[in-house]
Every structure is written in C-alpha cells, then in structure tokens.
TrEMBL record, chain A:
The keyword Lipid biosynthesis does not apply. It is a multi-pass membrane protein. It comes from the Eukaryota. GO terms for biological process: attachment of GPI anchor to protein; GPI anchor biosynthetic process. Coiled coil: none annotated. This is GPI-anchor transamidase component GPAA1. Heteropentamer. Part of the GPI-anchor transamidase complex, consisting of PIGK, PIGT, PIGS, PIGU and GAA1. Interacts with PIGK. Its main location: endoplasmic reticulum. Keywords: Disulfide bond, Endoplasmic reticulum, Glycoprotein, GPI-anchor biosynthesis, Membrane, Transmembrane, Transmembrane helix. GO terms for cellular component: GPI-anchor transamidase complex. The chain crosses the membrane at residues 20-41, 360-379, 407-425, 485-518, 525-547, 581-603.
TrEMBL record, chain B:
It comes from the Eukaryota. This is Phosphatidylinositol glycan anchor biosynthesis, class T. The lineage of its organism: Eukaryota, Metazoa, Chordata, Craniata, Vertebrata. It holds the Pfam family Gpi16. One of its GO terms (cellular component) is GPI-anchor transamidase complex. It comes from Dicentrarchus labrax (European seabass). GO terms for biological process: attachment of GPI anchor to protein.
Length: 604, 570
C-alpha cells in the first residue's frame, strides 16, 4: 500500500499496467485455462477421505440376504404395473403394510407451462406411495429417505423390488435411530417435488438427514454409477460420495462417476484425458443447473442426497442384487449412525474420478485468473478516462467530451438491453398460444423459437438506440459504458462462480475475451462474428455438441440442433417447475451484459 | 403404630400387610394387544398415605411412601408434581390413545402451595433436586424453557387454587431415557424390584421396545368420601410397547416371559391389591387372539370414552399361579390385520420452508368424529431462538378461517424466556384444523451453540388438551346391557372424556457457523484490518501531490536574509 500512496511509484505502476495490459491479460487467460486443465491431473488433486467421524471408524457388517426375493417382488410389481397401467398404488400400499411400515399415499397434479416433448407430458397427475419405518424409541425427529421412481415401461422394476426387500429386512432390525422413508415416486422429479415441498399430506418424518434415489433396471449389473449434480449445480456433501465409494470398495462393486470408471494410469496421456473427460462432464452437468437425478431437489432443503444407478454393460464381472442390497444396507447403517447432519466435508468440489476431488480452494484460482482480466481492463479504462490523451489542438473539445458522456448515454443502453432481457424472459411463455395459432408449430416449438427470435432481435435493437437519444457516440461515451459493462460482468461472473462454479467458469471462458477486446475501433465484421460466436446462446450450442462428444455419443449437426432446441425448452421448464436459476440468469443478466458489449462494437 | 399384619389373610401364604398406619399400596399391570400386532403393557403402582406434609408438620417416619419424595414435597411446598420420562413417540394412528400420555423426552409440571413466595427460586431448586433423584438432566430446566400455562394444566388433585402463578411447566425434548433413570424409579417402590409385578421390570427388555415411558405423579386426594382430610397419592406408571417385528421375530405370539424374560410367582407382600388386566374387548369370542391360562374373572370399565372388558388375574390369590407356581400369560394372535386407526383426536406438527432464515411451523389437529365438534386447548412453547411472527398466526379448518375463542400469548425475551401460546380452538366435525405461524431463526452467540450444532435444535411437543365426545355416548342405539329407561338422555359423566395429545417434537436447524473457521477468520480479518485498512482508507480519501522537499537550514537562513533585503528567495 505504501507503493500506491507514493505518487511517483503509483504512476510508474499504473503506466506499467496500462502499457502491458494486453499481454498481461493474455497471460492471465492462458494461465486460467491451464490451471483449470491442471485440476484433472492426479498429482495435483487430493484423495477423498471420510471426514465425518460418526461414519468413519465404525464398520458395519452387511447381512442383507434376500436379493432373489427382491427380484421376485420386482417382477410382481412389474405385473401389477402393467395391469394397472401406471402406478399400482393399492398393491404397493398392501405390500408395504405387510412389511410393517406405516403407509401413506399422496396424490398430486401439476400443469406444466407448456408440454414437455421429451417426456411427453403436460397435465401431470400421479400418486406417491411411501412407507415409513418408525425407528423404535425415536421421537420422529430425524429421517432418512430411500426412493425408487416408478417409471412407465419396463425399467426400474428391480429398484422397487429391492426397495421393498430392504424395507422388509430393515424392519426386523433393532438398530435404527432414525425413521426411514421408503418412497416410490411417480413422474420422477414432479412427484419428488410434491413429496418434499411440505404440503399437509407430503412425505414427513421429521427432518430428513440424507436421501438416496435408486435406479435399477436389470437383474444383474456390472457397475453402479453415482450422480451428484442437483438443482442449480448444488452438490451433496462430499462425505456422501465418500461413503458410496468406501462401500463399493469394501463390497467389491465396480463404481463409476459420470459413467466413467477409475483408471490408474494417470501418468499416461490417455489416463489424463480420461480424467479430464470425467471432470468436464461434471462441469457441464453442473453448469446446466438441472437436477440430474431424482435426488436433485432435496439439496435445496439442505438434505444431502444422491442418485445411484445400476448399469448393465457388456463387462464380464457381474454383481447381483443381494450385493447391491448389502451396499445400500451398509450405507444406511452408516447414515443411521450420524449424530449431526453431514457437514464435515466439502460442499464445493469437482471430481476428476471417484477417488479424487478438487476442492474450492484449488479450482477458484482458475476462475480468479479469468476474472482479474476484467479488473485489469477496468483499470486501464479508468486511467484512460482520468487522463485524457494530451492532444494540444483538441484540448478544448476533449474537455467537453469529458463532461459530455452524461448519465443518459450510459443509462440508455443499459436500460434497453435489460428490457430486451426481460422480453427474452417473459415473451416465450406469454406468446406461446398466439404463436401456435399463427404458425404451424407445437407449443414447445413456439416457446423455443420465440426465445431464439427475441434473442436474435435483441442484436438489432440496442445499438441504434443511443443515436436517437444522444446523437453520435463519443469517444469518452463508449469508454464509460465499457467500464460499467466490464465491472458489471466481473460482479456477475463472480457471484455466479460462487454459487455454481462451472457455470461461472464457462461463461467467463467465453465472455471475458469479448469484454477484453471489444472497442468501436476493431474491424466490424470480423469482431461481430467473433462476438456472436462467443455469445451465451452459441456457447450453449457448442456445449451441447461438446457434451455429446464427452459422453462418446457424437451427433450430426441436424441432431445437435434438435438437441439444442430441446435443451432450451428443458431449461425453461426447469425454471418454471423446480426453480432452476440458469434461464433467468442468462436471460435477465448475462444476455443484457453481452448486449452492452455488442452495443460498444457498434458505437459509431 | 402396630405392624398391621393381617393374620386372617395370611393363612399359609406370605404374611400380607394391607393397611398400615394409613399406608396403602396397590399394583397392577394392564396388557392391551394392539391392532398392529404390537402389545402395550402399562404398569401402575399406587401408594396412598394419610398424612399431612404441610403446615410445618415434620414427618420423619416413613413406611411405604418413599422418603426422598416425601422430603421434596415438604421442603419445596409442592402441592402436585408430575414428571415423566419418555423414549419414543406414541403412535396414535396405530396404537390408539395411551392411558397416560407423555411427550418424548422429559416433562415436568408442578403446582406449588400458595404459601410459596419465591416460586421461581423454589422451582430452580426443585428441578436440581429431582435431577439428582432421577439421574436425569432436569437441571437443564431454567427460565428459557419454563412456562406458566394459563389453562392447559389444571391440578389433578383436590384443591381450589388455580392461580397459574404457582404452576411451572417445562419439557426437555432431547432427554434420553435409559437404565440409569429406571433404577432410581424402581427404588421408589415398596418392594423394589424384588417381588410383585416389579420383577418384570428388567431394563434389557424394557428398552428393547418401540416405546418406553415412565412417570411419577404426586397429588393430594380425599381420604374418604366425605373428604374431610387429605391423603397423599403417589402413582408410579410405566408404559411400554413391544414391537411385533423386532421382539417376537415376526411370530404373532406374546407371553410374559417373551416380553419381560421373567414370569410371575407372587404379588408384592406389601400390596393390598395386585392384579393383571388383559384387554379382551376386541376379542369377545376369542376370534382375534387367544389368552392362556384362561380366567373366569372379568371386569368392565369405561376407559377413554370406550367401554372395555378385561380379564383379571388376581395375584393375591394363590390359585392364579396354578400348579407350576408361576404365571406366564400367553397371547396368541389368530388374525393378522394392521390397518390404521382413526382416533377421534390426533395431531401432528412439522416445519416447512427451506433456507436458514425463516420457516413456518404447521400444527395439524384432526377431529375424526363424524358429527360432533369439540373445543381443544393448544399449548405451544417455542424457544426464544425461533422468533415467532405472531401476526402470521393463522388457524384454518376446512379452508375457512377458524377464530380461536381464547388466546394467551406471552412473547419471548431473548435468552430469558420462551414463547408461550395457548389457544382454545373449536374443531369442526370430521376436519383437519391447521395452525401455522412463521418464525425467524436467530443467530446465536458463538458460545450458545451446543457441542453438536449441526444436529439441530429441539422444539418441544405441542400439548393438545380436550374433552372428547366419548364412543359410549355415540352409540345411543345400543341397548346392550342397559335397560331402556337408562339410555334416553345421554349420560353426562360418560358423554366426554379428557384426552391429552402430544405432537412430535421438532428438530430445527439454526444458521450455524463453520466452527473450524473462526481461527482462519480471526487471523485473516486481523491481518486485513491491521495492514490493509489504514492505507486503503488513505488512498481513497486523500489526494496526493508532489511537495517540494523542505529546504535545508542554511537555505532557510539565506532566504530570511534575502527577504529582509527584498530580493526573491532562492
């Protein structure tokens, strides 16, 4: 600080920063990307370890014997499901009662804002059935949840069978200290939401400490996949993942995360790229803000939750249902031992493999290096604004310019771009009926195409407006606007990265270069093209392709485009159904911010 | 006073003392096979003593009445004392109403004599003494969890004083009940656990159950029907529910040995009566379950508004024990059905909302009576760290606003006293009444957190007290065992009965700091404040400019001389 209070040295430092601004920015960007890529390199990451004392030292013995019977129950369930043409509520109630549970049903109905074409639903009506195993001598204050979705078709019957089998086995044990809620939910997340939003007949059993959602569609499996990403990129406490990993290791079940097995050859190129893929998949999923399993909505209620999916591939090594039952038994007994909520381990992390993690302290610098570019550019602009270029012949006009960029010239583009954002947020839903009447499209298409239409129309609007109001844009004017925009973007990305690092980082990766290089003096056509390429919508389009590539399911452009449209509709639906924040964030804040830069490009 | 051995009753049995010096002791066990296949065993031990602890009367000769409690009564001028320790939650939907309701954890309510001047001080001392007697954490009762209910807890013994200044009520929902609380409770019994029904009270079985509750009630009662003098009554009750699935390995068969790992061989020699009742109301023809050995003795009573029939085993009669000289009652279920019950009144409670700033407490009260509405008294005592927004209090039944006819609300004071909310609400027939109130979670001082703050903080059960229309009064059509002339007007005494229902306690999370952080935070903030703040503040508030270095001494002298000469300075 002494450095800064000495005017001479301060001047020297500032001139150094302004002179070398561009190279420093480039170096920061490269360093940020490099740091991020380094996170997947195993020697730089930490091994996972159990932090929670109550789950660590006490080993439990798993004895669940009834895998075969569970499969039989699953087949029975499947038969009754076919007969009932949906959820066999009566059969489930009877079966759960026979197993000594307190059984409740919950009816729910929900009308979506527009039809969901992926899952083919619009007016949703369903029933949740849940049985509560009351822990002996427990005052109903704490509970654990085990859920299995009842999906149409032939999938997931084994999960329900295993759930009922575990219920029967758990009922005869004496060691439970927390109630256990066995839930069979219909219409995946919509049913789940009905169950946990606390209406008079929702699933209640005291405060829920942890929840697992089980998906299982075959009698034998080759591996278990753990899904962590929940709504708005929230993750459960890392100890839940550790618990799963520890029991998979103990029982000898192959376990994966993002569908990727763990590899030991971290020092080879293919091993490294494998862990990069795993981590990138997690980043993409987290950035999407969607719940990636039925557990996703629990996290908002501070309930640690994860989904476990049984996968049957063509590997030799098979695991039977008894073993999966034991895995779950072990996990629930450990969770039952908890004295406090899971809180000891990390809530913010990335996982390049199931045995390694990157904590917030390690990944934040990658974002920080990108964010510092914005601050450097802001400093540069500030200095330029404070010291007008010493051109003697224009001295008087310069003085005028310093005072001329009034509030209006900055405020106008700000307001107009935000209004465009509001239009992007509201119009697609508002005008779906009108669009359906006017054009030969379905409701969903109408919503998505309106969104894209508004987005594109926004490109044409704002850069013309300031001319109407304040005439020709001045040199100082765009600087002030850019200063505001750059700081705005810095705050926006900073906040986003704190809540959802992946989203913040991906946005920073594309928007920071835009913010750094845009001036009215760069070549128009080329810059406009780059700007559009790096706009949020195109980022989403590339992300769709990239995600498919990571999953090793590459798609053609045509399929990718359709996927892109469905991703937009899903994003809007997620917002209106579950309160996902990505759509409003993009529409109301990020897109207007990007429009400001677009505005600067066409300042003159 | 002579040792009142009743020689007539003695014949070849153990000598039986019935009534000695106004002391009387009775013991009984009620066994009710529950609908769900579980079994409910309720012990009651009653000691009555014709004495007067009050008015400076120094009582020093104790016989059946436990001395430790007698001293407590006289020292603290207690008029009535009710204490219960409960592990587990009574499942009204599966088990029906209990004989003695109690909330999970510990509950203590005491009426003091009106001669007590410093009630709060006496209460504090009393809780500490009781804490020692029962090996429980009753010493954690202080002003932050004590309330004075205005209507919900009336004296159960005789007496006219109902000024609630002399009443103190507190619950400790977190209290865990175990063997260490059972042992001092058993020591209060005249026979200890050596003879009589108390031999069944083995902790390894009692705590291998779904529900366990033990209680002590002391109150003044009339000595005889004229009620000229009072006696002191001590009732010790113990209720336990055994789980069909855990304890019986799924076999639908119960016996005394299976439940308590003991059989009965004798009554307590000090007891004037010692009986076992088995509730066979649902089983008149033996189609539900089968009891052996069979007994010819039957007894009828109206319990909780319902006329019940009991098989009675009198342990004072040697014939009860048969030829093997031991009684092992056996109940074998024949049918297996476990539907939910619909008790006339039950209640539940939960916290809604997410995030750690605000929340909403919902209390649901169900009136399942098909056509009669009845009023209930709801008592809520909420700790101060949940700041109730009382203006958001709503009471709705059947979608309509239901205005309570009486509200007693005492706001909390931070760190001093809890919220107290009492309401008289009319429950319409066949309805759910929902009481909601929003609250804000307070941020505690860092020393006020418990050692396990992430477990959450407990809010005690709500208490719902009510006179419920009885089932007996409902069947006006029944002419069973009643002459026609007796059944035209519904009988007043049996038309309603008193029920107290406790909701589940709540576990609420408060905003909790990461307790490993303070060190980091202290280091970081201190450094930042010390190093950064001053200079940053200077940078922001001052403007800097280059100042000419101050001239040396020689130059200054030269300048003074030049000034005097009228020449411009150097």
């Amino acid at each position: 600080m002494g450095l800064l209070s000495d005017p001479n040295r301060r001047r020297a430092l500032i001139s150094l920063l302004t002179r070398l601004n561009s190279p420093i920015c480039v170096v920061c960007y490269m360093a940020g990307v490099a740091w991020f890529m380094g996170l997947a390199f195993e020697p730089f990451t930490l091994r996972t370890y159990m932090s929670e004392n109550a789950m660590g030292s006490t080993m439990v013995e798993e004895r669940f014997p009834a895998g075969e019977r569970a499969l039989t129950t699953g087949r029975e369930f499947s038969a009754h499901k076919k007969k009932a043409g949906g959820m066999p509520v009566d059969w489930l109630v009877k079966t759960m009662q026979a197993r000594g549970l307190e059984v409740f049903t919950q009816r729910f109905s929900r009308k979506l804002p527009f039809p969901d074409e992926n899952k083919e639903r619009y007016m949703v009506k369903g029933t949740n059935v849940y049985g509560i195993l009351r822990a002996p001598r427990a005052p109903r204050t704490e509970a654990l949840v085990l859920s299995a979705p009842c999906t149409p078709g032939d999938s997931n019957n084994q999960a329900v069978g295993l759930l009922l089998g575990l219920a029967q086995y758990f009922r005869n044990q004496i060691y439970w200290a927390k109630d256990i809620i066995f839930l069979v939910n219909e219409h995946d997340l919509i049913g789940m939401q009905a169950c946990i939003t606390f209406s008079p007949d929702s699933c209640r059993g005291g405060s829920i400490q942890a929840a697992l959602s089980l998906e299982l569609s075959s009698d034998v499996i080759t591996s278990m996949d753990l899904v962590l990403e929940g709504l708005n990129g929230q993750l459960p406490n890392l100890d839940l993942a550790n618990l799963f990993y520890a029991f998979c290791q103990k029982i000898g079940v192959l376990c994966t995360i993002q569908g990727k097995l763990q590899r030991n050859d971290w020092d080879s190129v293919s091993g490294y790229s494998h862990s990069v893929q795993t981590m990138m998949l997690m980043v993409m999923k987290q950035a999407s803000g969607r719940p990636w399993g039925d557990h996703g909505l629990f996290l908002r209620y501070h309930i640690e939750a994860a989904s476990i999916k049984g996968i049957n591939s063509f590997r030799q090594y098979k695991t039977d249902v008894t073993t999966i039952g034991r895995l779950l038994e072990g996990m629930y007994r450990k969770l039952n031992n908890l004295l406090e909520r899971l809180h000891q381990s990390y809530f913010f992390y990335l996982m390049p493999s199931l045995s390694h993690f990157v904590s917030i302290g390690y990944y934040m610098p990658a974002f920080g290096l990108l964010a510092v570019i914005l601050l450097l550019r802001a400093l540069d602009l500030w200095v330029q604004l404070a010291t007008p270029p010493p051109r003697t012949e224009d001295g008087i006009t310069d003085k005028e310019q310093v005072s001329s960029p009034g509030v209006l010239s900055v405020l106008t583009p700000l307001v107009i771009s935000h209004l465009t954002g509001v239009a992007l947020y509201t119009l697609p839903i508002q005008f779906q009926e009108m669009a359906v009447e006017q054009f030969p499209v379905s409701e969903t298409e109408a919503v998505v195409l309106t969104a894209i239409g508004v987005y594109t129309a926004g490109l044409a609007l704002p850069h013309n407006t300031h001319r109407l109001l304040s005439g020709e844009g001045t040199e100082q004017g765009w600087r002030v606007l850019k200063l505001v925009a750059v700081l705005y973007l810095a705050v926006l990305l900073g906040c986003t990265a704190l809540i959802n690092f992946s989203l913040g980082f991906i946005l920073a990766l594309t928007l920071v270069p835009v913010a750094a290089f845009v001036t009215p003096h760069v070549p128009k056509v080329l810059s406009a093209f780059i700007l559009v390429i790096l706009s949020p919508a195109c980022t989403l389009l590339f992300s769709v392709f990239f995600f498919q590539e990571l999953q090793e399911l590459p798609v053609s452009f045509q399929e990718g485009w359709l996927l892109y449209l469905s991703v937009i509709s899903q994003g809007i639906l997620d917002h209106f159904l579950y309160g996902s924040l990505v759509y409003p964030l993009i529409a109301l804040l990020v897109y207007p911010c990007w429009l400001l830069f677009w505005n600067i490009l066409f300042w003159k | 006073c002579a040792t009142g051995i009743n020689m007539q009753a003695a014949h070849w049995l153990a000598p039986r003392m019935t009534r000695q010096c106004g002391n009387d002791f009775q013991e009984e066990l009620v066994i009710r096979p529950l609908h769900s296949g579980d079994i409910y065993a309720s012990f009651q031990f009653r000691t009555v003593w014709e004495t007067d602890f009050m008015r400076g009367n120094k009582v020093s000769h104790y016989r059946l009445f436990p001395k430790s409690l007698g001293q407590v009564i006289s020292k603290f001028s207690v008029r009535e004392l009710h204490i219960s320790f409960t592990q587990g939650y009574w499942r009204t939907m599966q088990w029906g109403q209990p004989f003695q309701p109690s909330p999970p954890g510990a509950e203590l309510w005491v009426w003091f004599q009106d001669s007590v001047t410093d009630v709060d001080g006496t209460w504090k001392e009393l809780t500490n003494v009781l804490s020692g007697i029962f090996c429980a954490s009753l010493n954690f009762i202080d002003s932050t969890n004590t309330v004075q209910p205005s209507a919900s807890f009336k004296p159960l013994g005789i007496g006219n004083e109902t000024d609630h200044r002399f009443l103190r009520y507190a619950t400790l929902p977190r209290e865990i009940v175990c063997t260490e609380n059972l042992t001092p409770w058993k020591k209060l019994l005249p026979c200890g656990s050596k003879a009589g029904l108390a031999v069944l009270l083995k902790s390894e079985k009692l705590f291998h159950s779904s529900f366990h509750s033990q209680a002590v009630h002391i109150r003044p009662v009339c000595q005889d029907w004229q009620c000229k003098t009072t006696s002191w009554e001590l009732r010790q009750t113990l209720n336990v529910v055994f789980d069909l699935h855990n304890s019986a390995q799924g076999k639908r068969e119960w016996s005394l040995f299976k439940m308590f790992s003991r059989t009965l061989t004798e009554a307590c020699p000090l007891a004037s009566s010692s009986k076992i009742y088995i509730d066979i109301t649902d089983n008149p023809q033996g189609e539900q379950f089968e009891v052996s050995p069979a007994t010819p003795l039957l007894s009828q009573a109206v319990v909780l508004g319902d006329r019940r029939t009991f098989s009675v085993y009198d342990l004072t009669q040697q014939i009860t024990f048969g030829t093997v000289r031991s009684l092992n009652l056996l109940i074998r279920w024949k049918s297996s059905e476990g539907d939910m019950l619909r008790p006339l009144l039950h209640a539940e409670r939960y916290v809604a909302g997410y995030g750690l700033q605000t929340g909403e407490i919902h209390t649901l009260m169900y009136n399942n009576h098909p056509y009669r509405s009845f009023p209930v008294l709801l008592l809520d005592s909420v700790p101060w760290y949940l700041r109730l927004y009382i203006h958001t209090l709503t009471v709705t039944s059947k979608g309509k606003d239901n205005k309570p006819s009486y509200i007693h609300y005492q706001p909390s004071k931070d760190r001093l006293r809890p919220h107290l909310l009492e309401m008289l609400v009319q429950l319409p027939p066949n309805s759910v009444t929902e009481v909601t109130v929003q609250f804000e979670r307070a941020l505690l001082k860092w020393t006020e957190y418990t050692p396990d703050p992430n477990h959450g903080f407990y809010v005690g059960s709500s208490v719902i007290s009510s006179l419920v229309p009885s089932i007996v009064a409902m069947d006006t059509n029944s002419t069973r065992e009643r002459p026609l002339f007796s059944s035209f007007f519904p009988c007043k005494e049996e038309s309603s009965y008193f029920v107290r229902v406790y909701t589940e306690p709540l576990l609420v999370n408060l905003p909790t700091p990461d307790f490993s952080m303070p060190y980091n935070v202290i280091c970081l903030t201190c450094t930042v404040v010390a190093v950064g703040y001053g200079s940053l503040y200077n940078l922001l508030t001052r403007s800097f400019q280059i100042e000419e270095p101050s001239p040396g001494l020689a130059k200054r002298i030269a300048n003074i001389i030049r000034k005097m000469r009228g020449v411009p300075p150097l």
